[in-house]
Amino acid sequence: MSTLMNPYLSFRDNAREAMAFYQSVFGGTLESSTFGDMNMAEDPAEANKIMHSSLKTDDGLVLMASDTPDSMALDQGSSYSISLSGSDGERLRGYWDKLLDGGQMTLPLEKAPWGDIFGMLNDKFGTSWMISIEGQDS
Fold this sequence. Notes:
- Helices cover 17% and strands 35% of the residues.
- By secondary structure, the chain is of the alpha/beta class.
- It has a 4-stranded mixed β-sheet with strand order 1-4-3-2, with helices on one face. Strands 5-8-7-6 form a 4-stranded mixed β-sheet, with helices on one face.
- The protein is elongated and about 50 Å long.
């Protein structure tokens, strides 16, 4: 098996909602287990929080996430972005539109100085995304 790099997002209490949203954007199969399912809930009130969730799409995209227990710190900084790039402009624009729903555009999806169509946004869960469509006209 080759080595894979998979983005892994951390949430406080809404990993289930966020991953369902991402499944609505990208399609694919979503699998989730809770802290209670794995007998790992230190606090019974957190048994239904997501311990691990994995979204796998037919295109080979993989996105993972979990809820962070209240006893652990959660730094929701802005030091990361998830980048989607390729030449399928229609598909990438579709992802852009769905991710932008309820979110905020930080850079419009338009022709960049290097020739590609490029844009940036933060989705409604605060996740930062970059979309790059290779060799496309605006």
